Amino acid sequence: METPGSQSSLHRANLERVVRAVRLAGSLTQAEIARTTGLSAATVSNIVRELKDGGTVEVTPTSAGGRRARSVSLSGDAGIVIGVDFGHTHLRVAVGNLAHQVLAEESEPLDVDASSTQGFDRAEELVNRLIAATGVDRSKIAGVGLGVPGPIDVESGTLGSTAILPGWTGTKPAEELRGRLGVPVHVDNDANLGALGELVWGSGRGVRDLAYIKVASGVGAGLVISGKIYRGPGGTAGEIGHITLDESGPVCRCGNRGCLETFAAARYVLPLLQSSHGTDLTMEGVVRLARDGDPGCRRVIADVGRHIGSGVANLCNLLNPSRVVLGGDLAEAGELVLGPIRESVGRYAIPSAARQLSVLPGALGGRAEVLGALALALSEMGDSTLLDSTLHAATPAFT
Amino acid sequence: METPGSQSSLHRANLERVVRAVRLAGSLTQAEIARTTGLSAATVSNIVRELKDGGTVEVTPTSAGGRRARSVSLSGDAGIVIGVDFGHTHLRVAVGNLAHQVLAEESEPLDVDASSTQGFDRAEELVNRLIAATGVDRSKIAGVGLGVPGPIDVESGTLGSTAILPGWTGTKPAEELRGRLGVPVHVDNDANLGALGELVWGSGRGVRDLAYIKVASGVGAGLVISGKIYRGPGGTAGEIGHITLDESGPVCRCGNRGCLETFAAARYVLPLLQSSHGTDLTMEGVVRLARDGDPGCRRVIADVGRHIGSGVANLCNLLNPSRVVLGGDLAEAGELVLGPIRESVGRYAIPSAARQLSVLPGALGGRAEVLGALALALSEMGDSTLLDSTLHAATPAFT
DNA sequence: GCTTAGAGTTCACTAGTTGGACATAGACGG
DNA sequence: CCGTCTATGTCCAACTAGTGAACTCTAAGC
Q1: Smallest Cα–Cα separation from A30: which of A16, A13, A47?
Q2: Given A70, B92, B102, B295, which residue has the most CB atoms within 10 angstroms?
Q3: Domain HTH marR-type spans what residues (chains A, B) (predicted)?
């Protein structure tokens, strides 16, 4: 941010412009870059040379049968980003590069009762393992995205009370991880990251406004508005789980009655099946049984869908997103749950808003959050971090 | 948008930067501009000269007792914007300048059964009258903001069906007015404009995210997110009136049951008082009686408040705005309605979101929409239109 | 084999910002 | 009442960075 308004800032902006164009297209020739960015060929020539010297970009002498086009693409190891996601039962880590490619991904079970220290030990270990496995240069790591399953104040980085990982309340996960890995860590809650993940790699590609509904032990939503995570001024936007559906409904853990969560979240829904299907049931199990035709499970899932649909209808009336993506275990139920959701939306949302809404299952399953963490790391640094390294590497070469 | 990335675009950006800084501060010396914008004093000197030659800015030789500071301020007649609002019973027009000052404002009753042609005749006439009254130069009009009381597709400019001004459906108000006045016209619905008005001049000053709830014959909300009107991909965001509060409630004109509107909008609420208070009651009348102590009216207003509060709680959970502003006639009831709203919000919203929410009455009353139309005209042209004229006027002077 | 056309580079030119030198004018102290 | 001080605004030379035009290069097409 040195001097806004100066020529150097313009140059920087043009660098970013080029990098973004290349990233979006995968690979471009210089002439194509000039056309898509609106810059002149001469400028592009200079910028590409600078980026190449900095190692950000790779120039393959000639690829396809053109005249003599050198295709420019992001060099795979120009920068590495890492996504870490603490889920309710699993810890997932993914390693990607600036070209939006996922190089490696792994998950391992995480003990719910683990202390935060244990959790971070495991995360650090897994990150190191993946870095070693992919053989990337540690110094190339540009940033880490971190997902936590609970309300987090993005400003201060403090984790609020989470019923899922008790004992983590009040910790500052980003600082903790930053201390261990020595690189910038950006944190957000899992619903927001799921939304970002589906937006970039999953069912939300091509859309700029999206709501990601995650149904697990609770119900949360991640909102993407104009391509950016919307957190709201207080950072608690997207609490769709605590919309009131029935003022005299069951008491919710939040203290109100008849929240959507009490009709849809695993903790409230599973008990319904205990007497008939035993106590060891998980949401995953219910979904499996429903797919196999079990009528009780089908009925329960349809009811959950109807209630989620009511919440989505409210969301739709208020925000009018063009796409709603359903994540979490429940998404595995496919049409068994999506049908009732769509039916409810059609019934309760105003027609003009409902008409252009598509409700889709998540395409990434449980991976949405890690990949979202990756996307967060990418978006948080913008292309600027990348360019910083470019500049540092490039300027000595010019003197 | 000529050539993005060129130096001229940088220059343009710096011009905008200076204009914005001056507008936000009212008046600044060149040194102050340099400090707030981060530009160098020399650059500011050039830019100020250019703006002065273009007539955008005025330089008063010296104002207060400094050393020799020339204070720079936007020249009042650098550009004029006009706001036009078609309300349910009134037509309002306001004239303002680029310094965000309102120069004149007038309203006149509008016959509900007026055809759109008649309406536009009246609007054109009133605009001309105000232009004459303020003595501004017609050629200085940079843009017009237009508010219409119904759903409008901002992309195509076509008005959807409106129960308030029947016979206007399918017209393109912006085109119509543009044809008559010969300047760019930007259109939006009244709830969005009310939100913008309160944001810029009213109860929303200093906030970037705001929801404006307008209760009249229907219930609508205007959402401002990060300082910009949020319309949603389909343009129908903010339909808080058709959130479902009670699945088995009264049938709403939208076809669903138990919409917020059926508990709060005038058309559904007034009949409740007909047997006791007669049939000529208006919402305004109910509010007046309630303020005078009429228990029936007080009860009705409190009930309306409670229901609105339920809707606001949902809104709050989903979007977590920092401020909710209540507009329309109902806002006149003050605490009689705000109290129950806050109570409902406290009851139904999750505590962390409700805690930082302030619910305020609109500060502008029925003027919110016209002023919002003014703000729309200002924001739609950005500072660019302003700068275009500057450039056109300034470049000949340099050759 | 010659022509052609698109790709990329080089170079002189130009737009525009900057730092520093300079003139100006009020405030302050004597 | 006068010199000094300090902050303001302007001017100028230097520098940065983008552009158009000319130029070179290569492969395709006839």
Answers
A1: A47
A2: B92
A3: 18-68
Q: What is the dihedral of CA B111, B116, B120, B126, to 10 degrees?
A: 10
Q: Which CATH superfamily, name and number, covers B206-363?
A: ATPase, nucleotide binding domain (3.30.420.40)
Domain with CATH 1.10.10.10 in chain A: 7-75
User: A5 and B208 in contact by Cβ < 8 A?
Assistant: no
Nearest to A399 by CA among A53, A33, A12, A32: A53
A227 CB within 8 Å of a chain B CB: no
Q: Is residue A364 a contact partner of residue A373, using CB atoms and an 8 Å limit?
A: no
**CA distances (Å), A80 to each of A178, A231, B197, in order?**
15, 26, 46
Distance A132 CA to D17 C1' (A): 41
Q: Could you tell me which chain B residue has the CA closest to the CA of A230?
A: B319
The alpha-helical segments, DSSP class H, found in A172-294 are 173-181, 190-201, 261-264, 266-277, 283-291
3-state DSSP assignment of residue A49: helix
> What one-character-per-residue DSSP string does B180-193 give?
HH-S-EEEEEHHHH
Three-class secondary structure of residue A380 per DSSP: helix
Closest CA to B344 of B307, B374, B383: B307
Model confidence pLDDT, tens digit, residues B197-242: 999 889 988 888 899 999 988 899 999 988 888 988 878 889 999 9
pLDDT confidence of residue A76: 72
Question: Starting at the edge strand that comes first in sequence, how are the strands of the sheet with B27-29 ordered?
Answer: B27-29, B71-74, B57-60
Nearest to A148 by CA among A189, A108, A116: A189
Of B7, B240, B256, Cβ closest to residue A10 = B7
- How far is Cα A210 from Cα A187, in angstroms, rounded to an integer? 20
Domain with CATH 3.30.420.40 in chain A: 80-195+369-380, 206-363
pLDDT, average across residues B373-380: 89
- Beta strand ranges found along chain A (DSSP E): 27-29, 57-60, 71-74, 80-86, 90-97, 102-109, 141-148, 152-153, 158-159, 185-189, 210-215, 219-225, 228-229, 323-327, 358-361
B256 CB within 8 Å of a chain A CB: yes
What's the pLDDT at B62?
A: 62
Q: What is the structure's pLDDT at A3?
A: 60
- CATH of segment(s) A7-75: 1.10.10.10
What's the token pair of residue B247? 């699945």
Residue found by looking up tokens 């919710």 in the block: A252
pLDDT per position in chain A (399 positions), as tens? Answer: 456 667 888 898 899 889 888 887 878 888 888 888 889 889 999 999 998 888 888 888 765 444 567 888 887 777 889 999 998 788 999 999 887 789 999 999 987 677 888 889 999 999 999 999 998 888 889 899 999 988 888 788 888 876 677 778 888 999 999 999 999 999 999 999 999 999 988 998 888 889 999 998 889 999 998 888 898 887 888 999 999 998 889 998 888 889 999 999 988 999 999 888 888 888 889 999 999 999 999 999 999 999 999 999 999 999 999 999 999 889 999 999 999 999 999 999 988 888 889 999 999 989 999 999 999 998 887 654 454 544 444 333 332
CB-strand contact A43/D, under 7 Å: yes
Tokens 């849809």 locate to: A264
Contact indicator for B223, B198 with CB cutoff of 8 Å:
no
User: Looking at residue B157, what is its pLDDT?
Assistant: 85
Query: In CATH terms, is domain B80-195+369-380 a member of 3.30.420.40?
Result: yes
Decide if A251 touches B, using CB distance below 8 A.
no
| Distance C19 C1' – B50 CA (angstroms) | 21
Structure-token pair, residue B109:
């009753």
Distance of CA B286 to the CA centre of its chain: 26
